[in-house]
Amino acid sequence: MARRNILLASLVLVLLVCCGRALAWNSVGHMTVAWSAYQQLTPAERARVAVLLKLNPYYSKWLTYIPAGTSDTDRDMYVFMMAATWPDEIKAMGSGYTGNDNPPRGELASLNGGYTDKQAHKYWHFIDTPFSQDGTALPAVPGPTLTEKIAVFRQALASSEPDLLKSYDLVWTLHLVGDVHQPLHCAERITKGAPKGDLGGNSVVVAGPTKELHAFWDDAVGLGDTQDFMKAVAVGKTLPTTDAKLVADAKEDDWAAESFNLAKSDAYIAPVGPALGPYTLDATYTANTQQIAKQRIALAGARLAILLKTALNCGDQSCTN
Which has the closest alpha carbon to 33: 262, 314, 245, 295? Predict the structure, then answer.
């Protein structure tokens, strides 16, 4: 029996490594970030993002998820929320987008090709800053990273680029601001048993349906797909109040550093041990994860709203960008 358990754990680990990284906050988490941000936008800002999102190739698909009779106001909000899942949606088989977790050699952080770019760019979703608890040498962090791409897209949104490109920049911004607030998208534990890292917790096996530590954190506020946007509305109404001082920090590098520190202090702690598991996460660990997830999602929403306000530069009636 012990041997069988070891074999099963090994199989899970192989599947995790072969199949690539998990998502950051699942669809419900990302849509909750967007819901929170949308509440803080002005009518002019909401109108501007609505124009941009109509240019996304999934726009007509999103509309099919919205019940007949929904008001125009709510429709635009739901589309804004669903748009935050697009960079994960294009990872799916059959999406027409390709690529893996490793950046092509020589790709510049400044790359911004718009919807004609059929790369899924899975490596834009994380910045695995390494740390070790046993003295193992730390590898370099490959780029382009999550924080570098946020900087590119926020600058592009504030520029005079065409709306079609801004639409692409907007959906990536909605998504990546959520990603950078997920602790395990900004950290990777390096150990003697895993000297190349654990893929941000993706290789750490845990008991239960999520099967690995990273997914456990992704799913902390509930399960659901893009069409489950009403679940995100419900979660959004339970988010805690954000610290105004933290909200005012507009530096994406600081956001990543916060997540990195939380990963070390709250993700890689007992009952998670120094190896790759499997581990059974107890009620205390689960409750703490859920609390941190809501705090980070609320903070991501508030910061996203400020980022958009600054980039779009809207007055009472219209926006400059």
Answer: 295
Tell me how far apart the alpha carbons of residues 112 and 168 are, in angstroms, rounded to a whole number. Answer: 9
Cβ-based neighbours of 305, under 8 Å, separated by 6 or more:
36, 37, 38, 39, 40, 41
pLDDT at 2 over 90: no
φ, ψ of residue 314 in degrees (nearest 5): -95, 145
Cα angle 141-145-147, degrees, rounded to a multiple of 5: 120
Structure confidence by residue, pLDDT tens digits, 114-162: 999 999 999 999 999 999 999 999 999 989 999 999 999 999 999 999 9
Q: Whole-model pTM?
A: 0.93
Q: Which token pair is 171?
A: 């959906």
Task: Give me the domains of the chain, ranges plus CATH numbers.
Answer: 32-97+122-312 (1.10.575.10)
Sort 85 into a burial class: Cβ within 10 Å, 0-12 / 13-18 / 19+: buried
Question: How does residue 282 score in pLDDT terms, banded at 50, 70 and 90?
Answer: very high
Residue 313's CB is within 10 A of a number of other CB atoms, namely 14
Contact 204, 8 (CB under 8 A): no
